[in-house]
Design goal:
alpha+beta, Alpha-Beta Plaits, 5 strands, acylphosphatase activity, Acylphosphatase-like_dom, EC 3.6.1.7, Acylphosphatase-like_dom_sf
Length: 127
């Protein structure tokens, strides 16, 4: 015979539609998401406008890892890694927002791939 607390839990669970349980599992798996890595280069007025500092701040706010640095060509380049949805949010920010004084003409993304583990433990500015 089933102990009373277990019996009560079994009865309650039997009343929960399976499709709701499935949706919860799918949402949990989606939230964890696959890990994604992408390289980027941002063109426009992106140097001398605190672009790297704002990029680092946004990356930490979103919860992605990687790096950012100025190039000798006057662009900003870097790499972002993290859960797919978060990397996609950062890609959008790099394409459309940037720092308040910046002007983004275009952003090129390359080497976009799924990864099995993160290569960085934080987001940093490189020099």
């Amino acid at each position: 015979m089933c102990p009373l607390p277990l019996l009560a839990a079994a009865v309650a669970a039997s009343r929960t539609p399976l499709r709701l349980l499935g949706r919860g599992l799918a949402a949990a798996m989606s939230a964890a998401g696959r890990l994604k890595s992408v390289d980027y280069e941002v063109f426009g007025r992106v140097q001398g406008v605190c672009f790297r500092m704002y990029t680092e701040g946004e990356a930490k706010k979103i919860g992605v890892v990687g790096w950012v640095k100025n190039t000798s060509k006057g662009t900003v380049t870097g790499q972002v890694q993290g859960p797919e949805e978060k990397v996609n949010s950062m890609m959008s920010w790099l394409s459309k927002v940037g720092s308040p004084s910046s002007r983004i003409d275009r952003t090129n993304f390359s080497n976009e791939k799924t990864i099995s583990k993160l290569e960085y433990s934080n987001f940093s500015i490189r020099y």
